[in-house]
Structures are given as structure tokens and as C-alpha cells.
């Protein structure tokens, strides 16, 4: 079971309020974001089409629940860059994908 800690709630809330109307950040796991192809970020929300809030789950100590941690509350991307990033990620073979599954299950909490 995971929970959102108060620092993450504050970061998400301030990120959303700073975007203005018409924008809502899309939370995406930082590992997934890094697995995508290279994407050019823009500096200002007025130049972007997509706002991604990069998050990760962290466990403070063994046995404690995982907590959502905001890594970057406002990653501004254009639609064109997002399309390139999503279609240019690091693909693995089906064999490699299947062989990784047991390890991931064993590593799961």
C-alpha cells in the first residue's frame, strides 16, 4: 500500500496552481520517463503542450509503506517532442522482456 506524503502533496498542489487554467500535470513514473527516447524540454508553460509531473515511490525503511515522492513537479514538453520520445524509447526483445519478469517479481516487496 502506498500513500502520498505531505511534501509531495504540497509540491503537486503548487505545481498545478502555477500552471493556470487549461493545464493539469500528468503524473508519470520517473523510470518510465527515463526509458523513453530523448525529449527536448521547454522552459515555460506557455510553450508546452504537455506537463509531466515526474514521481517515484520510495520506502524509508524496510517494512514501512512506500511513499510517493515528487521528483520534478513541472516537466514541460511539446507534443512533437512527446511523440518522438514515446516512439523512440529503448525497446527490448520479447525474450529479454520475459527473462526479466521473474527477477522483477523476486525483487518486489
TrEMBL record:
Which Pfam families does the entry mention? NotI
At the top level of its lineage, which domain of life is listed? Bacteria
Which InterPro entries does the entry mention? Resctriction_endonuc_II_NotI (IPR022009)
Domain named Restriction endonuclease type II NotI is located at 28-68
Name this protein carries in UniProt:
Restriction endonuclease type II NotI domain-containing protein
Q: What is the lineage of its organism?
A: Bacteria, Pseudomonadati, Pseudomonadota, Alphaproteobacteria, Rhodobacterales
